[in-house]
Write a structure and sequence with these properties.
Layout (H helix, E strand, L loop, with lengths): L4 H17 L4 E5 L7 H9 L7 H6 L15 E8 L7 H6 L3 E4 L8 H20 L6 E3 L7 H7 L4 E2 L5 E2 L7 E8 L18 H5 L5 E3 L2 E2 L5 H7 L6 H7 L2 E3 L3 H5 L23 E2 H5 L3 H7 L9 H15 L4 H9 L6 H39 L5
Parallel strand pairs: 3-10
Antiparallel strand pairs: 1-2, 2-7, 3-11, 4-7, 5-6, 8-9
Length: about 375
């Protein structure tokens, strides 16, 4: 059994309605030809901008050839799901140096599981309603596939200068997913890019990781440094990381289009364990069991306890001086791994320098006060 053009057109319309019913905020359809992106991908890899993400180089151009991942596929159903939480407290958390900043996509349940499950349901729905073996396969940021070019091609938005997909009505606070399928569904039209001359994301990136429009050197990106990097975080980036202990949202915060971002309606993306604005010291005192318990079902768990401690040590080093922070850092020196110990020693050095500076400033203030008092006293006093 095969479907004629009108039936395929009707099915495409129905698929978008089913997607909305499952909680997707937008659904688009495109073909799988990404050959226009192959040279750019090769150039990016040759520059080493992928850092330690060897899986990027391992699969090479397969990322631009989705049909190789699921033979027989001829279309991608691309979906968007918003994740912006209520009361996101972006600036408030970043300004409070004793608070931990977690990228807002990671404060709830692991999006890989949420979107993949819904995409699977969408594929099953298509098979049930058409009585066809559609041969679908869902993807959510977990296989060598270029999600953003597919989303762009499917009309979900345009790729901005920070390399994220932007929608004029929803900004960029959303996840992407794809369902590869073997039905010749009608495709959607891409939308026009609307970044214009704006370079806010490039200018405000804390580490200057956006080295050119649409080109990110992952080795400088705070998201890469706190999540993907396995070993020591280079010294030149530690102070720039501030209190960002898992990921970074600055390029999105800088983007004017995000004034139109939509709040997420997905319950699974609501915050867990107060991660919107948790104290650094509270998280520092988690032992490994507590970390594993509290990050069950969370994307944060993938970095493991050692890198979690590494990132927290940097956050504590960048916090304003506090005797409690200094004591907490020193207390963990003997029990920590070499990786964590290296970052604790750096953090202790930073806190000690701030303590000396604070004492020096206090001493200067006292001396100024004494001089003021002495000037006001009678000569025979």
């Amino acid at each position: 059994m095969s479907l004629n053009q009108q039936q395929l057109k009707n099915l495409a319309t129905q698929i978008k309605l089913w997607g909305k019913e499952l909680g997707f905020n937008q659904v688009g359809i495109c073909d799988l030809n990404l050959s226009a992106h192959e040279d750019k991908l090769t150039e990016w890899l040759n520059k080493g901008f992928h850092g330690e993400m060897e899986y990027m180089a391992k699969y090479g151009l397969m990322r631009a050839r989705p049909a190789e991942l699921h033979p027989g596929s001829i279309r991608a159903i691309s979906v968007r799901m918003d994740y912006l939480p209520e009361h996101a407290q972006f600036a408030q958390t970043l300004k409070q140096t004793d608070k931990a900043y977690v990228s807002r996509y990671a404060i709830g349940r692991d999006y890989h599981k949420v979107l993949r499950n819904k995409l699977k349901q969408l594929g099953q729905k298509i098979e049930q309603q058409t009585e066809l073996n559609t041969g679908f396969r869902p993807f959510v940021d977990s296989a060598p596939i270029m999600e953003r070019p597919l989303a762009e091609k499917a009309g979900l938005g345009w790729v901005g200068k920070h390399s994220l997909v932007l929608d004029e009505n929803a900004g960029s606070w959303f996840f992407l997913g794809e369902l590869l399928i073997n039905l010749p569904l009608p495709v959607d039209e891409p939308v026009k890019e609307q970044c214009g001359s704006c370079v806010a994301c490039m200018t405000l990136c804390p580490t200057n990781a956006i080295v050119a429009p649409y080109e990110v050197d992952a080795r400088k990106c705070i998201s890469y440094l706190t999540i993907e990097l396995q070993g020591e975080i280079p010294l030149e980036f530690r102070q720039l990381i501030g209190n960002r202990i898992y990921g970074c949202d600055d390029c999105q915060l800088a983007c004017p289009w995000n004034r139109y971002a939509q709040l997420s309606q997905e319950q699974d993306f609501k915050q867990r364990h107060g991660l919107l604005s948790q104290d650094l010291l509270t998280l520092w005192h988690w032992d490994e069991k507590t970390f594993l318990d509290n990050t069950q079902g969370s994307p944060i768990r993938r970095i493991g306890y050692q890198r979690w401690q590494r990132n927290l040590a940097i956050g504590l080093g960048n916090a304003d001086f506090s005797p409690a922070i200094l004591n907490a850092l020193q207390a963990k020196l003997t029990e920590s791994s070499e990786l964590v110990k290296n970052h604790i020693n750096w953090a202790i050095e930073q806190q000690t320098m701030k303590q000396i500076h604070a004492q020096s400033s206090q001493s200067k203030q006292v001396k100024r006060l004494v001089r003021v008092i002495e000037k006001g006293l009678p000569r025979d006093a």
